[in-house]
Amino acid sequence: MTTLTPKILAFDVFGTVVDWHGSIVAEMARLYPQVDGNAFALAWREGYRPAMARVMSGELGWTRIDELHRMILDDILPRFGLQAMPEAERRLLNRVWHRLNAWPDVVPGLMRLKQRHVICTLSNGNIGLLTHMARHAQLPWDCVLSAEVFQAYKPDPRVYRGVAEVFYVAPAEVMMVAAHQDDLAAARACGLLTAYIERPLEFGAGQPKDVSPEPANTLHARDFLDLADQLGA
């Protein structure tokens, strides 16, 4: 157990808190069983970084993740024979990102962690999306912080420094919690503590992730319950 006492735990959400892949696969099996849900989920997520890059480069003005997800969705539908999907169905499917399911350890882990720390999101997801997701998955956040607040997407330093500014604390009093080493490296460069969470099945059982420890991180945890143990919560 560590003697670290970060005041704020800021959580990445997609993949770290919620199982986006499994949730989308289940949604596709329910609504469009003729489609390969695994391939569809991966294709939708694959468009995420290129879409954000268009905003970060200035090609697009500030655009919320909901709108980026819809742009990607419209682009991939023909690939899966769904080009004739009506507008109402497209809107419904795009909101699957609002109703993603949490990993099993998340809610009990967060309930423990919030006894000693302020817990908040620090996600590229927009505020409405993250709020609906929290209600769906019963995520007990103290605060929902989004790239939307800072009008910048991670890994822009404004996002990581912004969480410290919001809570009037030093960057070293914030711990970024994520299942992605690039997110943590960017947070660390801004002076934040970092905790890596293993999510080997983030991309599904067919695409297991390398979850090897990165020595530069402050902590390495199997899941949120293990993180709570290490932080003495």
Number of domains: 2
- Label the overall shape: globular
Structural class from helices and strands?
A: alpha/beta
Mean pLDDT: 96
* End-to-end CA span: 10 Å
Q: Under the CATH scheme, which architecture of the largest domain would be assigned?
A: 3-Layer(aba) Sandwich
Tally of helical runs:
11
Structural write-up:
By secondary structure, the protein is an alpha/beta fold. The chain folds into two domains: 8-19 and 100-230, Rossmann fold (3-Layer(aba) Sandwich); 21-98, Putative phosphatase, domain 2 (DNA polymerase, domain 1). It is 43% helix and 12% strand. The protein is built from eleven helices and six strands. It has helices spanning 20-31, 37-46, 48-56, 65-76, 87-94, 106-113, 127-137, 147-150, 157-166, 181-189, 224-230, and strands at 8-11, 118-123, 143-146, 174-178, 193-197, 219-221. A six-stranded parallel beta sheet has the order 3-2-1-4-5-6, with helices on both faces. The longest helix has 12 residues, at 20-31. The mean pLDDT is 96.
Helix and strand layout, with pairings?
Layout: E1 8-11, H1 20-31, H2 37-46, H3 48-56, H4 65-76, H5 87-94, H6 106-113, E2 118-123, H7 127-137, E3 143-146, H8 147-150, H9 157-166, E4 174-178, H10 181-189, E5 193-197, E6 219-221, H11 224-230
Helix pairs in contact: 1-2, 6-11
